[in-house]
From TrEMBL:
Belongs to the SUA5 family. This is Threonylcarbamoyl-AMP synthase. It is found in: Cytoplasm. One of its GO terms (molecular function) is L-threonylcarbamoyladenylate synthase. It is an enzyme of class 2 (transferase). Residues 9-195 form the YrdC-like domain. It comes from the Bacteria. Its EC number is 2.7.7.87. Required for the formation of a threonylcarbamoyl group on adenosine at position 37 (t(6)A37) in tRNAs that read codons beginning with adenine. It comes from Terriglobus aquaticus.
Length: 339
């Protein structure tokens, strides 16, 4: 049975002790809940993969809460990386940095670079400092499933498989951090999030490019966390539509039970089960509510989920991040090279 802890000082002390002893603790961050273990302990890191059912070729992100910890994790901080750290840490930015000797192959899947993030969430920061450890922490869900934005989501996937979860309430942003490599020119963004390409270019003065995976590339060779083909997926098949009119057509033509992810300002028939999402033009609402809504739709038990795909808008990388998560969630299971 997994302990469900509040975020009191006593609970954080319990969680820190579990981590120092090689245990697994789910913690809230400003993006999603992460499943934390001592990044310097290969056995503890291995427990993350076992609990999630995560393949060992998929690298992890290490979370820190001090410059001293950064120096234990990264062997080198380039001038560009330092500019980004000064601008966006603590915050929802992960940088791929040359790994320090103490970071093993189990964390990076044998790669020379390690993903590093300094989270903004006060509970995450307090836990990291209390444990006095850099923490490897992918999202706290079963591999390939919908990322968790509440402690209840964590327990739905991992109850009995991990030691504890710190319940910090719903996460703020709702989708995972931006992941980039500051060592390349142009800077390469591997996963879009709340830190935009325009923000990165403005701070560094270096042009930015978005990573485009090759269609037939093996997952073992993927260079970064967060770039797999199918991910963030409900158990129920998901079909995407481009507009309200297309959504209405799909509802009318459905020959099987459907459930609908409905923007709150879209009028649609009340007959199919539906979960209200957020205002269509409010990207922050869409990001914040995405994973909770998908989990609720999964619980309905329909044969198909219908969901609108937000349009791409110049300069709105968070909207692009929501698009990315939905596109990956909708990939057919037979094309899932990550499972």
């Amino acid at each position: 049975m997994t302990l469900r802890l509040d975020c009191s000082a006593q609970s954080i002390a319990i969680a820190a002790t579990l981590l120092r002893n090689g245990g697994l603790v789910a913690m809230p961050t400003e993006t999603v809940y992460g499943l934390a273990a001592n990044a310097l302990d290969a056995s503890a890191v291995g427990s993350i993969f076992a609990a999630k059912g995560r393949p060992h070729w998929d690298p992890l992100i290490v979370h820190i809460a001090s410059t001293a910890m950064l120096n234990k994790v990264a062997a080198e901080i380039s001038a560009t990386a330092q500019l980004l750290a000064d601008a966006f840490w603590p915050g929802p930015l992960t940088m791929l940095l040359p790994r320090a000797e103490g970071i093993g192959d189990s964390v990076t899947a044998g790669r020379a670079l390690v993903g590093v993030r300094w989270p903004q969430h006060p509970v995450a920061q307090t836990l990291i400092l209390a444990a006095e450890l850099p923490l490897a922490a992918p999202s706290a869900n079963r591999f390939g499933h919908i990322s968790p934005s509440t402690a209840a989501h964590v327990l739905h996937d991992l109850d009995g498989r991990i030691d504890a979860v710190l319940d910090g309430g719903p996460t703020g942003i709702g989708v995972e951090s931006t992941v980039l490599d500051p060592n390349t020119t142009p800077i390469t963004i591997y996963r879009q999030g709340a830190v935009s390409a325009a923000d990165v270019e403005r701070v560094t003065g270096v042009p930015v490019q978005l990573f485009q995976p090759e269609p037939n590339r093996s997952p073992q060779s993927l260079p970064s966390p967060g770039v797999g083909i199918r991910h963030y997926a409900p158990r129920t098949p998901l079909r995407l539509v481009e507009s309200r009119s297309e959504l209405l057509e799909e509802i009318a033509a459905a020959s099987q039970p459907v459930a609908v992810l409905r923007p709150q300002d879209w009028a649609i028939p009340t007959d199919p089960p539906q979960v209200s999402w957020g205002a269509w033009d409010d990207t922050a609402q869409l990001a914040h509510g995405l994973y909770a809504a998908l989990r609720e739709l999964d619980r309905i038990g329909s044969s198909l989920i219908l969901a609108p795909l937000p349009d791409a808008r110049a300069g709105d990388d968070l909207r692009s991040a929501v698009r990315d998560r939905l596109l990956k969630a909708a990939m057919p299971a037979e094309d899932d090279r990550q499972s």
